[in-house]
Structure prediction request, 71 residues.
Amino acid sequence: AYSMLGLCYFLGKGVDKNEERGLELWKFASKFGSGSASTNLGFYYLAHNFLESALLSFQLAHKQLPKETPG
Prediction:
């Protein structure tokens, strides 16, 4: 829920746009295991050329997101 709320703030969907608040919510959600929040942070860092932070966020997301089973 915090990851989605962060996205709403970041994009200004249903709330006043506030990218800083969106990032805070993504960081909070990531800290508590949200792979989607970690992915969003990774893309944000990548877009702003914070490459080391982007890599760490994507690595964390990889650990947090469920793995698909072959079938």
Observations:
- The chain is about 70% helix and 0% strand.
- Helices lie at 2-11, 19-31, 35-47, 51-64.
- The first helix runs from residue 2 to 11.
- The radius of gyration is 13 Å.
